[in-house]
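Hi team,

Filling in the usual template for the complex we talked about on Friday. All components are listed, including any nucleic acid strands or ligand strings, so the model treats them as one assembly.

SUBMITTER: L.P.
PURPOSE: interface mapping
COMPONENTS: two
RESIDUES: 225
SEQUENCES:
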Amino acid sequence: QKEVEQDPGPLSVPEGAIVSLNCTYSNSAFQYFMWYRQYSRKGPELLMYTYSSGNKEDGRFTAQVDKSSKYISLFIRDSQPSDSATYLCAMSGSNYQLIWGAGTKLIIKP
Amino acid sequence: GAVVSQHPSWVICKSGTSVKIECRSLDFQATTMFWYRQFPKQSLMLMATSNEGSKATYEQGVEKDKFLINHASLTLSTLTVTSAHPEDSSFYICSAKGQGPDTQYFGPGTRLTVL
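RESULT (copied from the run log):
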């Protein structure tokens, strides 16, 4: 079993829809949770960062962490074609070494 | 966010030659740099972690004699793929880390094609 599980997709939704992306993990020592966005043939860019459990909102993006269920989510409201990318979850413990999910390819259809 | 550059962005080489990829943190000093490779439609695979002035720590299964990493300063790390073969063709991405868990910034990547 991988430490971090993420459905690779692709996930295809119409423009304007709410998108839900998820990751599950097995290591209870993880306390830092991140979502990265990667466009094709580009390096990943940090989208959201959450420490421990709770919600964090930034514009159209909301990150949720449920440590009791070992489950994290990224919600995108009012999705746009420009949101089409691969979204990778990453998490770490106190050593700050990132453990990555496989990435979910998201396609927003105009 | 901070800026990390990689050079070259794309390289094609003949089998058996060596290729050097540079990773620079442009506006901050990176205590640690990471090197990843990514095959098409797959996630990032950590190859090695390097700290300035010390030897790199390689992940299991990564040949340290084939993938030479030098971290000469707090703003520069290099990855040299020695005696490259077609199976080394991949997307290589570096990241540079400052202080704190959310301060890992990625370069734009280098696409290596070995003929």
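MY TAKE: The mean pLDDT of chain A is 92. Chain A touches chain B through 23 residues (CB under 8 Å).

Thanks, L.
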